[in-house]
């Protein structure tokens, strides 16, 4: 099995820790908040407030299930527009109360269903991109599994973007890429190699800022490393005045 094939398999492994697992293990007194105040509470995106080093932080992420029924309830981690609007509501709340934002991303992409399109899926994603680019508090985004398409980017316009070692981040799934390019979705591994979607490759290209080593899906070392890195990086970002924070974020994405 090639390295890319192995990473594809591991990025999608159902045994991975979920957003709620990380939220409860990294942040003290995590309290989940619900609803977008417009339509519904999307189970594919979760968010709330927790304490990191004694300071309040807003935590938002895509939630996949750990079994079939849980995945059905979470729509297999494919958010609807109300999920992105819930995320935006919590980010604007964080801005109001000057809380930094941490997002945790594990999705194949936004849900492409008819209802989602009717309720403005494209607009909801675009609105998040716009608002996050100008959000006046520090943002750190971490890919914890799959990072697929605009559905992932809608939570990843951040001051720092990190990936766990055995995860992927791409403009679309390798299967979709292969289907478009060769009309053959079975050539997904070949497509993934061309797309450069692994953490190591994206770090070299400057798309992400850090790779967090993995030592198994349930390693307490991973959780502790993420917690330590978050505390250190947020301290640095909070020392910047708002104008410098936003300018650095702007320049980070303009360099692409």
Automatic annotation (TrEMBL):
Protein name: Acetyl-coenzyme A carboxylase carboxyl transferase subunit alpha
UniProt subcellular location: Cytoplasm
Coiled coil: none
Source organism of the structure: Streptococcus ratti
Summary of the function given for this chain in its UniProt record: Component of the acetyl coenzyme A carboxylase (ACC) complex. First, biotin carboxylase catalyzes the carboxylation of biotin on its carrier protein (BCCP) and then the CO(2) group is transferred by the carboxyltransferase to acetyl-CoA to form malonyl-CoA.
Catalysed reaction, written as an equation: N(6)-carboxybiotinyl-L-lysyl-[protein] + acetyl-CoA = N(6)-biotinyl-L-lysyl-[protein] + malonyl-CoA
UniProt xrefs under Pfam families: ACCA
Biological process according to GO: fatty acid biosynthetic process; malonyl-CoA biosynthetic process
Family of the protein in this entry: Belongs to the AccA family.
Complex and partners: Acetyl-CoA carboxylase is a heterohexamer composed of biotin carboxyl carrier protein (AccB), biotin carboxylase (AccC) and two subunits each of ACCase subunit alpha (AccA) and ACCase subunit beta (AccD).
């Amino acid at each position: 099995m090639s390295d890319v094939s192995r990473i594809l398999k591991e990025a999608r492994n159902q045994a991975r820790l979920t957003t709620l697992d990380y939220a409860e293990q990294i942040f003290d007194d995590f309290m989940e908040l619900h609803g977008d105040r417009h339509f519904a509470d999307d189970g594919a995106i979760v968010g709330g407030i927790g304490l990191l080093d004694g300071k309040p932080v807003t935590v938002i992420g895509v939630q996949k299930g750990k079994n079939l029924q849980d995945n059905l309830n979470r729509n297999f981690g494919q958010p609807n527009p109300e999920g992105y609007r819930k995320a935006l509501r919590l980010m604007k709340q964080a801005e109001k109360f000057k809380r930094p934002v941490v997002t945790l991303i594990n999705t194949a992409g936004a849900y492409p269903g008819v209802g989602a399109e009717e309720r403005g899926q494209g607009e909801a994603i675009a609105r998040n991109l716009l608002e996050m680019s100008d959000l006046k508090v520090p943002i750190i985004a971490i890919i914890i599994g799959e990072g697929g398409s605009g559905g992932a980017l809608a939570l990843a316009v951040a001051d720092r973007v990190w990936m766990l070692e055995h995860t992927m981040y791409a403009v679309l799934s390798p299967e979709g890429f292969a289907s478009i390019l060769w009309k053959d979705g079975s050539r997904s591994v070949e497509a993934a190699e061309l797309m450069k979607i692994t953490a190591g490759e994206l770090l070299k290209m400057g798309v992400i800022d850090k790779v967090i080593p993995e030592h198994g899906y349930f390693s307490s070392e991973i959780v502790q490393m993420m917690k330590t890195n978050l505390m250190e990086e947020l301290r640095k970002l909070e020392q910047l005045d708002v104008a410098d924070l936003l300018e650095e974020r702007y320049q980070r994405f303009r360099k692409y």
